[in-house]
Design goal:
Order of helices and strands: HHHEHHEEEEEHHEHHEEHHEE
Helix content: 55-70%
Largest sheet: 7 strands, antiparallel
Number of helices: 11
Oligomer: single chain
Structural class: alpha+beta
Length: 515
């Protein structure tokens, strides 16, 4: 009769725990929503809850996070730097002038006998100049031309004089010097392409971080769910144990042990709720989610329809990643520094040649008649006579830096290759780990249900029940952690290769439009 009473109490307790048991099952892993363990939530609570998937959280971070806005701003900055570079190779046209140039003052004038006399000055000296220039990339020289008109009014003597340069054209050519334009044309396109790929990499890095915050909250929600379910189950077992203790079937020690388990479960509920709130705030802050609704995360799929090979990932990574472009850019910059050091050593000269016309007249209509020819040819140079080896030291330093950059780039390439290969291996390994963790979760849940049934019937000790309790909880956490590692490896592969292996195409973003 006592045994029948115990069985009836167990059946009643088991029926009360069916919602918790259903949540613990992992047979429906695809898009399961983490819900409270105490049955159905009220309607108003459901309306105040927003359900999010992993991909939704990632897309929110890419579009609304501070990190994404920073990436867009950096992308814009690099784009306009690129436009500035391109303008250096286009013809430049400028209009300059002084209108008016009025002045009324006194100035000291030295007399023939050495004395100084202060003479009044009252005039207007206005100038207008229109000039163009065009840089020559191959030689580093510059072609220029100009036209100029100057008017001088002497108000004290009531005279006006015009000076005009109808046109002048010239050429300036550095000799034996460093050609900045040529090296900029080699490096600037690499910098621009690197910035474009870095923008894509920044957006993919946002996905990596967003997935980390997603699983932080998901694990916190699962821990809170486990804690609430454990507290409910512990109290139900405690009620059954009280009946068994009244019938003399168990000892006082087991009652105390269950009371201790109940206290630990209550503490776990409080701690898990605090962790869940912190993880929720972190996710909101990073993704830019402004809604005040509660967040309920859905379990992401445990499989992805894609196969990756290390050779393919490496090929895409070296073709797309900003780091691979940076390798070329760093070597070119080191070679530029060597050329600059050599160009600043020894003979430096500049050839200037100018041909044009000029004229002076009291009338603007006559100033352009019969202009006088003007010509200029000069070579300015400088030769260091004694610098105590400074020029040679600069050159050797630049050459040593080039050699170091080559070794450093080679090492970085090897490290990058190793990182990509390791990530491919990790992704393949985590696919199997997720499946094993799912099976382990299901087994541990079933084992706990059996252990609880045996304890109610008196065939299991409280110690064995606690062990099954802990194994069930740990198996659930291990499954979530395996999912985290799996999806983390997936987004890391995208970040390293900048390639979408699901759709078999390069990753691009159209957030920033170039004008």
């Amino acid at each position: 009769m006592k045994r029948m009473l115990i069985i009836l109490l167990w059946v009643k307790a088991y029926a009360m725990t069916l919602p918790a048991k259903a949540i613990a099952q992992t047979n429906t892993l695809e898009h399961d929503t983490i819900q409270p363990a105490k049955g159905s939530a009220p309607q108003n609570e459901m309306e105040d809850t927003i359900s999010l998937t992993l991909r939704q959280v990632v897309n929110m971070a890419r579009s609304g996070s501070i990190a994404s806005k920073q990436a867009i701003t950096v992308r814009k900055t690099k784009y306009w730097e690129w436009r500035t570079y391109r303008s250096n190779y286009q013809p430049q046209l400028a209009l300059t002038g002084t209108l008016p140039g009025f002045m009324k003052t006194t100035t000291p004038v030295t007399q023939p006998n050495g004395s100084v006399k202060f003479e009044p000055i009252h005039n207007n000296n206005s100038t207008l100049n229109l000039a163009f220039s065009q840089s020559i990339t191959a030689t580093g020289g510059k072609i220029y031309g100009a036209t100029e008109l100057q008017r001088f009014d002497d108000f004290d003597r009531n005279t006006t004089l015009y000076n005009a340069i109808p046109y002048t054209i010239g050429y300036s050519q550095p000799l034996f010097q460093f050609n900045q334009l040529k090296w900029d044309k080699r490096i600037a396109p690499l910098l621009y392409q690197e910035s474009r790929q870095q923008y894509i990499a920044d957006m993919e890095l946002i996905a990596v971080k967003a997935s980390g915050y997603f699983f932080d909250l998901l694990l916190a929600q699962v821990n809170h769910q486990i804690a609430e379910s454990n507290l409910q189950n512990t109290r139900q077992i405690q009620r059954i144990a009280d009946e068994k203790f009244a019938l003399g079937k168990i000892s006082r020690n087991e009652i105390l042990q269950l009371q201790l388990e109940a206290l630990k479960a209550e503490k776990s509920v409080g701690a898990s709720k605090r962790s869940m709130e912190i993880a929720s705030l972190n996710l909101r802050a990073y993704t830019g989610l402004q809604q005040a609704k509660k967040i309920a995360l859905e379990l992401p799929p445990s499989m992805i329809n894609m196969n990756v090979q290390a050779e393919q990932v490496l090929a895409e990574a070296f073709a797309n990643n900003a780091e691979s472009i940076g390798y070329l850019r760093r070597i070119q910059e080191a070679r530029r520094d060597v050329a600059k050091a050599r160009g600043e050593t020894g003979l430096n000269a500049t050839l200037n040649a100018n041909l044009g016309y000029t004229n002076t007249s009291p009338s603007v209509s006559k100033v352009y008649r019969n202009p006088q020819n003007q010509q200029l040819v000069e070579i300015a140079f400088s030769i260091p006579i004694l610098d105590w080896g400074r020029s040679r030291s600069r050159t050797k330093t630049a050459e040593a830096n080039l050699e170091f950059s080559q070794y450093e780039v080679e090492q970085d390439k090897q490290n990058f290759t190793q990182a990509v290969t390791t990530q491919v291996t990790l992704f393949d390994m985590m696919k199997g780990q997720v499946a094993l963790s799912a099976v382990a979760d299901s087994i541990a849940t079933e084992k706990y249900e059996i252990a609880r049934s045996r304890y109610v019937l008196g065939n299991l000790s409280i110690t064995d029940l606690s062990i099954a309790f802990a194994e069930k909880d740990q198996a659930k956490r291990d499954f979530i952690l395996a999912l985290r590692d799996f999806w983390g490896a997936y987004y890391e592969l995208r970040y390293l290769s900048l390639y979408d292996f699901e759709q078999n195409k390069k990753i691009t973003y159209d957030t920033f439009t170039e004008h």
